[in-house]
Amino acid sequence: MTTNVELHHGDCLQGMGQLPAGQVDLVVTSPPYNLGIDYNTYRDTSERQAFIAWCLEWAAEVKRVMADDASFFLNVGAVPKNPLLPHQLLLALTDGDDPLFILQNTFHWVKSISVETRGGDTISTGHFKPINSKRYVNDCHEYVFHLTKSGEVTLDRKGAGVPYVHKSNISRWGHTEGEDKRCRGNTWFIPYDTIKNRSRDRPHPATFPVGLVQQCIRIHGKGENTHLLDPFNGIGTSALAAVRSGIISYTGFDIDADYLDVTRERLRAEHEEPAETT
Ligand SMILES: C[S@@+](CC[C@H](N)C(=O)[O-])C[C@H]1O[C@@H](n2cnc3c(N)ncnc32)[C@H](O)[C@@H]1O
Which ranges carry the DNA methylase N-4/N-6 domain (predicted)? Predict the structure, then answer.
């Protein structure tokens, strides 16, 4: 299916206000984290309470445009000196007698990992930004909070599933229904693509990988008939994932016109070159 991609230049709060209620199936986004990231247009340094209040405003619009069985995958990271931000934001979104959202799942997006094999080797894979510190270890993960209106949205657990290591489990457990696929769980190792030139290959300070959004599309499980929204489009990683997944539509907003131009270039290249895998 050819994805209908709509890119809007401007503030997502105002932009989402123009969208009809209840039409979006899936929201995957990574807002600014208020950690002083050097974006082109947005100033990423607000007073903490003002930042949370702003997040509650745009999140309320996200909720309004979501269908009742929609999923909202919210990617948030932290920095070692500011480790509580993801949790403070999550609490604000889910707090009170009438919370905006219910936290249905918490995923750990693992960017880099080292695994000791049974043979005694250590395999290290993925990419991370090294931290030069005596106090803090390298930060190799971010959160992806899965928020829904009801807490009861059905997912396609096996849509993002993995084969069994021990094939005897397939016949041993009735719930497998004979299929060599199990739920992957909530630790997602999704590395960034290796790039040669930062300003040319990833001209934005805070992107997520296409594979992260594709995983959300798969686990959401509505197939081609998925309307995806990313209110903080950046350079269009979610748009690319929508196109690669062949879903029906994508809507993105960003306040920076240059990032939207990069999005258009990436989408053009996508149609000219074979899809990369992550
Ligand atoms: C963390 S980045 C998103 C990156 C994106 N996930 C990607 O992979 O390219 C956050 C983006 O939000 C944009 N932004 C900040 N405030 C905004 C607003 N009020 N409305 C729309 N976009 C905004 C910034 O310009 C920035 O590109």
Answer: 24-263
How far is the C-alpha of 139 from the C-alpha of 43, rounded, in Å? 23
Angle, vertex CA 248, rays to CA 158 and CA 231, nearest 5: 90
Interval 112-171: pLDDT, tens: 999 999 999 999 999 988 999 999 999 999 999 999 999 999 999 999 999 999 988 888
Q: Evaluate whether residue 190 is within a structural domain.
A: yes
Distance 154 CA to ligand 1 centre (A): 29
Q: Which domain holds residue 44?
A: 4-272
Under 8 Å between Cβ of 206 and 234 = yes
Determine whether the shortest distance from the Cβ of 211 to ligand 1 is under 6 A.
no
- Quote the strand ranges of 10-140, DSSP E: 24-29, 66-76, 102-110, 112-116, 122-126
Tell me the three state secondary structure of residue 52.
helix
Whether residue 278 has its Cβ less than 6 Å from ligand 1: no
Q: Does some domain include residue 278?
A: no
d(CA 155, CA 143): 19
Residue 277 lies in a domain: no
- Closest-CA residue, ligand 1 atom 16, reads 42
Sequential DSSP letters for 222-268: -TTS-EEEESS-TTTHHHHHHHHHT-SEEEEEES-HHHHHHHHHHHH
